[in-house]
Amino acid sequence: MAEYVSESVQLTNEIQLHIPEEGISALSNELLDSFENSNMEVTDKKVEQSESCAKVVAAHYNNIEEKGVEDRKDSRIFHMRNLNNWIKSRLIAKVLRRIANEKKQRGFNVLDLGCGKGGDLLKFQKGPVNHVVCADIAEVSVDQCKKRYNEHQHKFSAEFITADCSKVNLKSKFDNPDLKLDLVSCQFAFHYSFESLPQAEQMLANISSNLQPGGYFIGTTTDAFDIIRRLDRETNPGNRKFGNEVFSVEFPESTSLEKVPLFGAKYNFHLEGAVDCPEFLVHFPTFQKLALRYGLKLIEKTRFEDFVKEEPDFEFKNLLVRMKVYEAYPPYPGKELVSKIPSDYVHAQDYLGSLPNSKDLKIGTLTKAEWEAASLYLLFIFQKEDNQRNVDTKLPREADGQQTV
Ligand SMILES: C[S@@+](CC[C@H](N)C(=O)[O-])C[C@H]1O[C@@H](n2cnc3c(N)ncnc32)[C@H](O)[C@@H]1O
């Protein structure tokens, strides 16, 4: 078993990545079928609803307090946040490397779509990035992102745009409307556009029409199939909610779970101290099909838990430890476990119990509750096709002379 040295004490890198079975039942085929077969019609009603959701989403993110490093350490989801950051770092670095190899040129242009408070700015330093466009619907977040950029030395220039990227033509807001992007990164934000088909299309048009041929579109979003599965409606037919002490997913009565719509499948997402607002299921096969219509071809789609398990690079495995993705179990003397609930560590105990010589050994783990939340997500990589397909990358509403939604 490979071992890492962390702070003078050895931590194994054998981590319990499996999510305990409780609450995650077998596939509900009927439900998944209804999800697959639902039609793509978009009614006016959905568009009306979407206006109110955008405001709720923007207000929610605008009102989140900026937390200092110390406060963040006390968060119940401290390690899960670190895991998310590690995954984003890894994904961004991997694709920047790929672009560098393929293009043999320096000076990439990047769009951080749904940039939030700029938590990913430093991650773009890892490649030869020349310029970053940061765009988000929440004005306060964009201001904080700009402040964060100005407070640190960056190798790249940056511009900041406040806009609902699922409803406006972003190009018209760029400092240089002819700017061509090498990478669009949309982290934990794409699902907001699946409120309606026109919004998803506008988002994809903003991505594709500004990307160079061969450029990449990467991101992270929830796994809709997993969400539907975890509702376990075969066993509990009326169920609309699941979760634990750190997160919950709840579908309002207005979202049909008998025939889940492809767009506008709204659920309320709560993540302790981080998110509390409506989100929308992203039916991945539809996302993939729609993206292809915008010249974006799927290269990779990986669930978070598999991405961590499959990491081949020692440097990045080591980063897992340095970024404090895992909590040491049992804890170091004088340290408290982040969860007071014993069942949150059963998997770690079981694993240690299965080892022949586990006395004095510490393993790195996440609480069961955090794993259950982290494993809701998947990451994706699309590439803009070199040759223009027979598709129109014009903005969807412009194409037929109408205004955007
Ligand atoms: C969970 S946060 C992620 C922020 C950042 N990407 C990160 O990974 O730290 C989701 C972000 O998406 C933004 N967002 C939601 N809907 C949006 C839209 N229609 N257009 C642009 N940004 C949007 C929110 O304001 C919020 O900042």
TrEMBL record:
Keywords on record: Methyltransferase, mRNA capping, mRNA processing, Nucleus, RNA-binding, S-adenosyl-L-methionine, Transferase
Catalyzed reaction equations: a 5'-end (5'-triphosphoguanosine)-ribonucleoside in mRNA + S-adenosyl-L-methionine = a 5'-end (N(7)-methyl 5'-triphosphoguanosine)-ribonucleoside in mRNA + S-adenosyl-L-homocysteine
Chain sites annotated for binding S-adenosyl-L-methionine: K88, G114, D136, D164, Q187, Y192
This enzyme's EC code(s): 2.1.1.56
GO molecular function, one term: RNA binding
Ligand binding (mRNA): N84, N85
Subcellular location: Nucleus
InterPro entries associated with the record: mRNA_G-N7_MeTrfase_dom, mRNA_G-N7_MeTrfase_euk, RG7MT1, SAM-dependent_MTases_sf
Signal peptide, first to last residue: none
Feature type site, description mRNA cap binding: K117, K123, R148, H191, E279, Y377
GO cellular component: nucleus
Record field: transmembrane: none
Gene3D superfamilies assigned to the protein according to its UniProt record, in alphabetical order: Vaccinia Virus protein VP39
Superkingdom: Eukaryota
Entry coiled-coil feature ranges: none
MRNA cap 0 methyltransferase domain segment(s): 75-385
Pfam short name (any one): mRNA_G-N7_MeTrfase
Family to which this protein belongs: Belongs to the class I-like SAM-binding methyltransferase superfamily. mRNA cap 0 methyltransferase family.
Name assigned to this protein: mRNA cap guanine-N(7) methyltransferase
The organism of origin for this protein: Eubosmina coregoni
Gene (UniProt): EOG090X07I2
